[in-house]
Amino acid sequence: MEELIHSAGYDCAGIVRLNLYTTSVQEFFSTCTDVYKDFLQKYGIRQATTLLEVKGLFATLTVELEATVVK
């Protein structure tokens, strides 16, 4: 996601909304929380967030992120 945001000419610090979709909220909290927190702290992001558990995602994905970024 960082690469995509930067290649579009934006900065991750401009993330104002971050939606997370996961096939298991329990697994997300047990395996992804540290990476997620580190990412937010790295850029000083203070966004609105929605975390949703869904039945399935594309191919074999277990987590999908959707960000709204402003300049």
Task: Write up this protein.
With 71 residues, this protein is of the alpha+beta class. The protein is 34% helix and 30% strand. The chain has three helices and three strands; from the N terminus they run αβααββ. It has a three-stranded mixed sheet, with no helix packed on it. The longest helix has 11 residues, at 33-43. The protein starts with a helix and ends with a strand. The relative contact order is 0.34. The model has no long low-confidence stretch (mean pLDDT 95).
Helix and strand arrangement:
Elements: H1 2-7, E1 15-22, H2 25-31, H3 33-43, E2 48-53, E3 63-69
Parallel strand pairs: 1-2
Antiparallel strand pairs: 1-3
Structure classification: alpha+beta
- Average pLDDT, rounded to a whole number, is 95
* Low-confidence segments: none
Helical amount: 25-40%
CA-CA gap between termini: 16 Å
* Cα shape: globular
Total number of beta strands: 3
Rg value: 12 Å
Identify the strand order in the major beta sheet: 2-1-3
* Percent of residues in beta strands: 25-35%
The major β-sheet equals: 3 strands, mixed
SSE ordering: HEHHEE
What is the overall number of helices?
Answer: 3
